[in-house]
Amino acid sequence: MMGKPDKALPTGWTTSPREALRVTNTGPIAQYDAASTPGYTGDKQAGTAALIERGAHLADLQEMLFANGRSRGHRSVLLVVQGMDTAGKGGIVRHVGGLVDPQGLAITGFGKPTPEELTHDFLWRIHRALPPAGKIGIFDRSHYEDVLPVRVHNLVPERVWSQRYDLITQFEREVVAAGTTVLKVALVVSREKQKQRLIDRLNDPTKYWKFDPSDVEERGFWEDYLEAYQTIFDRTDGDHAPWYLIGADRKWFSRLAVCELLIDALEGLNLGWPAATFDVEVERARVAAL
Ligand code: AMP
Ligand code: MG
């Protein structure tokens, strides 16, 4: 196994989240149990408590990344969040992103391309949203939409979308080479749980705004989406930009898992606190004399 040996596993985990959830170890998405918690033995109560405790650690690491960015460090982290409707992408942004200083985040949601975006190549808007040094970028949907609905509905001809897997791999390699750690999570919701969540939205006036009638039609393309996702994993997973498959029927688990993967990514940067750019003793004396 790659990486740091002998690193203690977080409490409740029997396998590191990075191994347990990596798409090369989970098997195909079509067979994935969306209610499973691979690698984790705790229940909802333990997992919810763990998110708070581990969130404090994530916040410390994020501050260190931010401090390095302020001191000419060039590192950043990009978390790509994909998943079918109701999988809880927004909840990841809110509940995991919400664990750290919002000033250290660069969050972008990608909806249907605007007329201006459509005049450019599909990676144009993605480039512009990449996190600067010191920040954690979170993409709520991403360039992968250009091989998801675009492929399922042939919004561009097959000869165009079929080239995008290689273009994406090349793009991500460049992003990583420039100093950004890329991790990609696919939230896997079951068909039954999606139906339940759609019903919940219709039964609660405070959730009407989340309901999109076109989501009902998209459900009819379930198998096509699974196939499109599987092609993404087969063609764009790599150690440079790994994909993780995370069950989303239990939201407490998907949030904890993403938190752990982010911690792992940040620890992997091996950062320290930036050294003083001034003489500490001299400054101490000057302040004492104020
Ligand atoms: P939401 O995330 O609920 O705001 O919905 C955003 C919508 O935009 C979803 O239906 C996405 O599938 C769609 N979308 C995002 N990116 C693209 C794209 N590149 N091409 C077509 N549809 C897209
Ligand atoms: Mg939607």
Automatic annotation (TrEMBL):
Instruction: Give the signal peptide, or none.
Output: none
Give the GO molecular function terms: kinase activity
Q: Domain Polyphosphate kinase-2-related spans what residues?
A: 43-267
NCBIfam families under this entry? Answer: PPK2_rel_1 (TIGR03709)
Gene3D superfamilies the UniProt entry points to: P-loop containing nucleotide triphosphate hydrolases
Q: What is this protein called?
A: Polyphosphate kinase 2 family protein
Q: Which organism is it from?
A: Gordonia defluvii
Which controlled-vocabulary keywords does the entry list?
Answer: Kinase, Transferase
